[in-house]
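Database export, one record per block. Field names are fixed; values are copied verbatim from the stored entry.
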Amino acid sequence: MPSTPKTLFNGDARAPRLYKEIDLRLNDPQAIEARRWIILNVPTLVEVDDDQEVWLAKVKQVLNETTDELDNERPIGKEYLKQVLNWFDFIGFVALHYWSMENELVEWMSPLVAKIWERVGEYVEDEARRRNEDDFFRAARDFGNYCLQWRREHYPDSRIIQDAT
């Protein structure tokens, strides 16, 4: 049975505006490109035989080596990661303060969040440790970890296909 807005939004009158903002950010062409780039270029830990050191070195290499067509001074991988982290931080903050994490929000968001987070989550945790900033993208980290764990408990691992829509 579909939820009512009251269930999904905890009765918050601002919720429809927040939903629209999330939808706009989710479907922004730059956001789609950033997520697609990460999914196609950044390996998962499983793809490097669960070797944490090798994986972290590979992720750093991929994020730092790629030139960008955006004409920024930072590599395109880091630019895309920053965009995704900003978006996850926003949605994580909204989920924590305005919605319940145990409802349709996580079911709706978990496929794309989990695909990204399994590729960058530990990298972001490593950067937070190196910065000595426990609050570094805290909402993004909490939301990413929650969605990844939820997804693993409810669905089998997905596969990335090259000719995806």
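Remark 1: The chain has one domain: 15-154.
Remark 2: DSSP finds seven helices and no strands in the chain.
End of record.
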